[in-house]
Amino acid sequence: MVGADLICASRAFVGSKGHTRLSAMIPLSVLDLSVVTTGTKPAAALRNSIDLARHVDGLRYVRYWLAEHHNLASVASPAPDLMIGQIAAVTQNIRVGSGGVMLPNHAPLVVAERFKMLEALFPGRIDLGLGRAPGTDGATAYALRSRLDRREGDDFLERLHELILWETRDFPAGHPYNKVVAMPDDSPLPPIWLLGSSDYSAELAAQVGMGFAFAHHFATHDAIAAMTNYRTHFKPSGWRAEPQAILGVAVVAAETDAEADKLALSMDLNRLRRDRGEYLPLPSVEEAQAYPYTDAERASIARNRARLFVGSPSTVMAKLQPLIAAAQADELMVVTAVYDHDARKKSYSLLAEAFGLGKKVAA
Question: pLDDT by residue (tens digit) across 174-230?
Fold first, then answer.
């Protein structure tokens, strides 16, 4: 069991192209879902992830995280650790990590070994983001865990504690794991981040003294409350001396509000279908435009749009700025799940310019 002692702004100005920028710049990062669309098969979606990573590395984004999802037709990558190695190998500066590894699906020793290997191969560039959810439906979650030891209820804390012990080697005297070493033993675990969409995850990250990443893009819990709670209750640890909080947001940026709004139509229909239990590849803009929405469906889409940041750079920045300041985010992690890959790259380019990251550098 986990010991109680362990678990116990920015001012704006207008840039040269009229784009609102944040004067107190915070780093930008990417959360990538390896989006599968009706026109992009899963294998191509994985190659698009590698291409996007090269692109944002040149734009001076600081972090590139890969999600873990299973049996989801719109997400190609169930194994972020494999993608991390591929992406780190073809980029130069950007940190690459998991957003995240769904720890209940994995033996903690396996996670420790794989991420110590990644850290050995790409020292100082790997992040280990951990999530509590299965990242899939009940039947698939059972299939993923059917050969693991059967633990009752939510065993995330137990698995987190074990993962930490593979690094600290503080198993109790006489414990059989004292003779087991997570290799390579000369490489540390990379920095650990706890992912969440509720106050529980914020409180846990604060108690164990780890980084915290909040998923505003799908959370129903208030981001400001969660991130404030994390910062207020943070306890320094061997993992981190000070709190560091990442705010995850969904952004669609284009040259004009109208163009961005059109690109986001694919996300609107995809979310509507997911709410009905229909997990399909991301539809095209044309399919979304032709869909016969009911009044109730249009109202549902409007409610979901409240959590998206859609528009021209100046529009997006005007919407983001108050949230960043109120949440006291140390970093903004952006997910842009649109149908067209070139439009996705353009969105990240426009956002980088609006945040003043500078001109694109050679990858």
Answer: 999 999 999 999 999 999 999 999 889 999 999 999 999 999 998 889 999 999 999
- Cis peptide upstream of residue 85 (ω within 30 degrees of 0): no
Rounded to the nearest 10°, the torsion over CA 87, 55, 124, 130 is: -60
Can you give the residue range of the structural domain that contains 126? 4-354
358 pLDDT tier (thresholds 50, 70, 90)? low
Q: Tell me the C-alpha distance between 348 and 346, whole Å.
A: 5
Q: Within a domain: residue 16? A: yes
Beta partners for 12?
22
Handedness of CA 353, 355, 356, 360 (dihedral sign): negative
Q: What does the DSSP assignment read for 277-320?
A: T---PBPPHHHHHHS---HHHHHHHHHHHTTEEEESHHHHHHHH
The residue type found at 3 is G
Q: Please provide the size of the chain in residues.
A: 363
Confidence of residue 280 (pLDDT cuts 50, 70, 90): very high
Reported as a single tens digit per residue, the pLDDT across 80-103 is 999 999 999 999 999 999 999 999
Judging by DSSP bridges, how do beta strands 308-311 and 245-253 pair with one another?
parallel
Could you give the C-alpha distances from 228 to 28, 197, 199, 210, in angstroms and in order?
20, 13, 10, 15
At 84, give phi and psi (nearest 5°). Answer: -60, -45
CA separation (Å) from 301 to 254, 271, 323, 359?
20, 8, 21, 35
Q: Is residue 153 part of a domain?
A: yes
Considering the domain boundaries, does residue 363 fall inside one? no
Q: Of 201, 79, 214, which Cα lies nearest the Cα of 135?
A: 79
Q: How many domains does the chain have?
A: 1
- For residue 359, is it within any domain? no
- Are the C-beta atoms of 247 and 333 separated by less than 8 Å? yes
Rounded CA separation 274/6 (Å)? 37
If you average pLDDT over residues 125-142, what whole number do you get?
Answer: 83
How high is the pLDDT of residue 16? 33
Query: Looking at residue 298, which CATH number applies to its domain?
Result: 3.20.20.30
Q: What is the pTM of this model?
A: 0.90
pLDDT beyond 90 at 304: yes
- Residue (of 174, 11, 117, 98) closest to 333 by Cα position: 98
